[in-house]
Amino acid sequence: MAESFLLSFQLNGEPVEVAAPPHYTLLEVLRYKLDLIGSKQGCDKGDCGACTVQIDRRPVLSCITLGVHVQGREVVTVEGLTRPGMHPLHDCFDKWVAAQCGFCTPGILMAAEAYLSAVGRKVTRGEVAEALASNLCRCTGYTKIVDAIVEASELMAAEDEGKDDHRRAGNPSKTS
Ligand code: FES
Ligand code: FES
């Protein structure tokens, strides 16, 4: 049996150290060594997106990413998807009843969050469909998922604009 190695990285904002066999994928490290079972083991071969997490704020498929890859990096899973108060994506998925069985939902939330944070504005339905093309929903309820993400994009952009206004108000050098 392969010897375990010690993996150190930031997980959901906290430093973590965990011993895992070198062949373990990131998904296996999360689920079987750290008991974080929010990231789902769907196809386990890079086809469905259910295992999507973020590494250094970019979405990755954790079932085809080796655990060693995250040494010293920053990982966010669905358990770490927070903002002060309820995250707009949680709020909108709830409002639009965007989860059916919910199996695809963690991966979709993480892919959507990375995309919306990167673009920083309200997005269109077409843009959402394109950005989430790698995330499959077995229940096929895409309409409500897309509606929820479009509305969340508006809320996130408004929140970020509010923060910018607040920063500018507190920093006169940026108001000119
Ligand atoms: S479980 Fe990773 S892509 Fe399907
Ligand atoms: S809600 Fe069931 S797989 Fe998407």
Question: Could you characterize the architecture of this molecule?
Answer:
The protein is an alpha+beta fold. It folds into 2 domains: 5-80, Ubiquitin-like (UB roll) (Roll), CATH 3.10.20.30; 88-171, [2Fe-2S]-binding domain (DNA polymerase, domain 1). Helix content is 38%, strand content 14%. It has 5 helices and 5 strands, in the order ββαβββαααα. It has helices spanning 26-33, 88-95, 105-119, 125-131, 142-170, and strands spanning 5-11, 14-20, 52-55, 58-61, 74-76. A 5-stranded mixed β-sheet has the order 2-1-5-3-4, sandwiched between helices. The longest helix is centred in the last third of the chain and has 29 residues, at 142-170. It is globular and about 55 Å long. Mean pLDDT is 92; it is low at 172-176. One FE2/S2 (inorganic) cluster (FES) binds next to loops.
Features:
DNA polymerase, domain 1; disordered C terminus; 176 residues; Ubiquitin-like (UB roll); five-stranded mixed sheet; alpha+beta; 5 strands; binds FE2/S2 (inorganic) cluster
